Amino acid sequence: MNQIILGPLVVAGAAAALALVIALVDRVVNDYGEVTIDVNHGKRLYKVRGGSPLLGTLASQGVFVPSACGGRGSCGACKVRVLSDVGPVLPTETPYLSPQELANGVRLSCQVKLKKDIAVELPDELFSVKKFKATVERLDDVTYDIKDAVFRLDEPREISFTSGQYVQLVVPPYGTIKESVQRAYSMASRPGDSGRVELLIRLVPGGIATTYVHTALKVGDRVELVGPFGDFRVRDTSAAMVCVAGGSGMAPFKSMFYDMRERDAFPDKDIWYFFGARSSRDMFYLDELRRLEAEWPRFHFVPALSEPSPEEGWNGETGLITDVLERYVKDRIPRDKGLEGYLCGSPGMINACIAVMTRNGIAEGDIFYDKFA
């Protein structure tokens, strides 16, 4: 068994090392000189030094293409349409591109290296994305592995966003990490409190950004945030929202619910919020959300534990969150105005919830999600 596991790891490690050597040799041997990036048919022209990926080079010019993985080629978020010939699509790109996208020249900007002049198309909304300077105002442990981090922006009311969107946290070099990286986190703060950005950050073993936040970041530290990004948002319909999350997937929903309550937005929408955890130590904001449910008649909160122990004294729903969801969608949630699905979490959780929802009559086109990279 160990040989079966170690074999692919050795091959992957050798491939990564070879890629690094090739990149270093290419940087030393090849001098691509100055190249021009033509954005949106001549509307913006950037003359830059060649040799680096398109994603980072655009960022150096103040144009921030979203990248949930920080340019590692593992999220597929940094898509741009390339209008000029920049060479064949790389194997690292194809898993994230549909046949239609491939036919339309869509590429991952983190994988496109600038070797000559290039023409691209970018959504106009990207030009409103900014880099913000902020101070860490609060760092609270809401579970053993999730921190609630609040950042106070230097300029009050500087950021304008829609609940459900995310920002990228810029992580500086620290410890053995020699280069700055960026990672994406959904905002838990309300758009009405635009002087602050709140993020829920779960510790991922070996994660560069999450380790930094959990072990190195301190109240009073200075940070940079880039955003806002994303189109995960509440749709302006009367259909009931069927929302499912777990862990730090709580973040965009916290923003949505409190924003809706504050503005009395979408007054015809009922909200059903399913939050799944393994045990009580993974559950948080219980009292706050139950209080919101008591005060707001159209909000229904359904927390569930999949593996509660008898000692926990849990009296709520039990079982996998998908099983709890199915019971409610079948028998408890009114359908007179229609249903929409809203999901935030891991790809596995989201795919399982989509299967439950479509099996119970929610059209796939009415299911919206924010999938972790």
How would you spell out the order of helices and strands?
HEEHEHEEEEEEEHEEHEHEEHEHE
Here the CATH topology of the largest domain equals Rossmann fold
* Whole-number total of structural domains: 3
Structural class: alpha/beta
- Assigned CATH class of the largest domain: Alpha Beta
What CATH architecture of the largest domain would you give?
Answer: 3-Layer(aba) Sandwich
User: What is the radius of gyration computed over CA atoms, rounded to a whole number of angstroms?
Assistant: 22 Å
Strand order of the largest sheet: 9-8-11-6-7-10
Q: Which consecutive residue ranges, at least 5 long each, have pLDDT under 50? A: 1-13
Count of β-strands: 17
Please, what is the average pLDDT?
A: 90
The CATH superfamily of the largest domain appears as: Nucleotide-binding domain of ferredoxin-NADP reductase (FNR) module
Write a concise synopsis of the structure shown.
The chain has 373 residues and is of the alpha/beta class. The chain has helices at 2-29, 54-60, 99-103, 208-215, 250-263, 286-295, 321-331, 347-359; strands spanning 34-39, 44-49, 79-82, 106-108, 118-121, 130-141, 146-153, 166-171, 181-186, 196-202, 222-229, 240-246, 271-277, 299-305, 317-318, 339-345, 367-371.
